[in-house]
Amino acid sequence: MSTPLPPAQPAIDLAEPLLAQVGAMGTGYDTWIHKSIGPTTASRLMAPKAAAGDALATRWPASLRIFQSPLLERLSHISWKLIPAVWLPIVLGLLLGSTLGLGLAWGRALAWMLVGMLGWTLLEYVLHRFAFHWRPRSALGRKLHFLAHGIHHLDPWDATRLVFPPLAGVVVAALIYLPLGLLLPATIATALMAGILLGYIVYDMSHYHAHHARPKGRWAKAIKIAHQAHHHKWPNRLYGVSSPLWDLVFRTGRP
C-alpha cells in the first residue's frame, strides 16, 4: 500500500499581504517560515509598488506586507527607539515607587530587581521555545503564529519588526504583575517587576543588536553568533537571546 502524498501547499505571493495567505497553508508552514528570504528580497518585491505610488511600500520599502488594512500595516512597524523611551521611565517609576513610595530599602529593592532580571531570562526562554516555536495545526493558529514570530523568521532582516509593540507589551506586563501583586507584598512585587521590565529592555535591545549592529566585545559577538545560528542553522535550538543560561540548563544550545 503506497503512502499518501501530503497535500499540496498553496503558492505564496510575497508581494501581497501575507496574513490572508498563511492561514491556508498546511504542514509546510513551519518549513516555509524558516527558509528566510535574503536581505534585498523585500526591497525588490516592494519596488514596483513604490514606483506605482503605494504609500506603504514607499514608507517601508524593505518590508514585506502583512495586512490588507493600511492602518494595521502601519501599526506593525515599530522603531527600536520606542522600547527604551517607553519602558525605562516605567522601570524608574516602579523602582522609586517601591523605595520612596512604599518604603523598601534601596539595597533590598536592587536585590529584588536583580531577581526580576534573572526571572525575565527564564520567561524569555520559555516564551521563545514554547510559544514562538510551537507548530500550529489550524488556519487561525498559523495566522497568530505568523504575527507573533513567523514573519520574523521569514524576514529576519526587517528592522521595523524586531521589537515588541509597546501597547501589546503593556497588556503582557499587566498580566505578569497581577499574580505578583496577589502573591507578594507590594514592595517586593513592585521592585521585582522593575527588574523584569529592565530584563525585557535588555532582551529587545540585544535582539535588535544581534540583527542590525556590529558587535563590539566578546559577549556581544557571542550573542550575535548564537542568534544568527538560531535563525539560519538550528531554529529549534538556542532560544536564549539576551543570555545563554537556560539553553545551558535545558541542553538546547549548540548540538
Could you describe the 3D structure shown?
This protein is mostly helical and 255 residues long. The chain has two domains: 19-75, no CATH class; 82-249, no CATH class. Helix content is 62%, strand content 0%. The protein has helices at 19-22, 29-33, 41-51, 55-59, 70-75, 82-101, 106-131, 139-154, 166-183, 186-212, 218-232, 245-249. The chain is globular and about 60 Å long. The model is unreliable at 1-7 (pLDDT under 50).
Number of strands: 0
N- and C-termini, Cα separation: 37 Å
Which sequence of SSEs, written as H and E, runs from N to C? HHHHHHHHHHHH
Structural class: mainly alpha
How is the topology of this model organized?
Blueprint: H1 19-22, H2 29-33, H3 41-51, H4 55-59, H5 70-75, H6 82-101, H7 106-131, H8 139-154, H9 166-183, H10 186-212, H11 218-232, H12 245-249
Describe what is shown at a glance.
This protein is an all-alpha fold and 255 residues long. Helices cover 62% and strands 0% of the residues. It has two domains: 19-75, no CATH class; 82-249, no CATH class.
